[in-house]
From TrEMBL:
GO terms of biological process kind: methylation; negative regulation of gene expression via chromosomal CpG island methylation
GO cellular component, one term: nucleus
Entries under PANTHER family matching the protein: CYTOSINE-SPECIFIC METHYLTRANSFERASE (PTHR10629), DNA (CYTOSINE-5)-METHYLTRANSFERASE CMT2 (PTHR10629:SF34)
Record InterPro entries: C5-Methyltransferase, SAM-dependent_MTases_sf
Signal peptide extent: 1-16
Signal in keyword set: yes
Taxonomic placement: Eukaryota, Viridiplantae, Streptophyta, Embryophyta, Tracheophyta
Alphabetized UniProt keyword annotations: Methyltransferase, Signal, Transferase
Domain of life: Eukaryota
Protein name: DNA (Cytosine-5)-methyltransferase CMT2-like
Gene3D superfamilies assigned to the protein according to its UniProt record, in alphabetical order: DNA Methylase, subunit A, domain 2 (3.90.120.10), Vaccinia Virus protein VP39 (3.40.50.150)
């Protein structure tokens, strides 16, 4: 009986049209006028708690150097993750860090 009731309760919930942003955005030349109506953002008076913006440096600063003559398909990291994003990317399915 519970399983028949649950979809009805979920159906009654009012959901936003789009998911709200989870991370801050670095705004540069944004948005182009043709995409103005597609911008998903918070209202000015709405309290927001978002994570800091993720930039390329967060993603690749821990990668080992690679030359044009590299023959290995996989390489080990030389250092532990430096950012929260790197820890997340290296984590396994059950949330444990893949770094020894």
């Amino acid at each position: 009986m519970f399983f028949n009731f649950l979809p009805f309760v979920i159906f009654l919930q009012v959901l936003p049209q789009f998911p709200l942003p989870t991370h801050d955005v670095i705004v540069r030349y944004w948005p182009p006028p043709e995409y103005e109506r597609n911008t998903v953002a918070y209202d000015e008076d709405q309290k927001r708690e978002v994570e800091k913006a993720i930039v390329i440096q967060d993603a690749i600063s821990d990668l080992p150097p690679v030359t044009n003559f590299e023959t290995r398909d996989e390489m080990s990291y030389r250092n532990p993750p430096e950012t929260e994003f790197q820890r997340y990317i290296r984590s396994t399915k059950n949330g444990n860090s893949a770094f020894p």
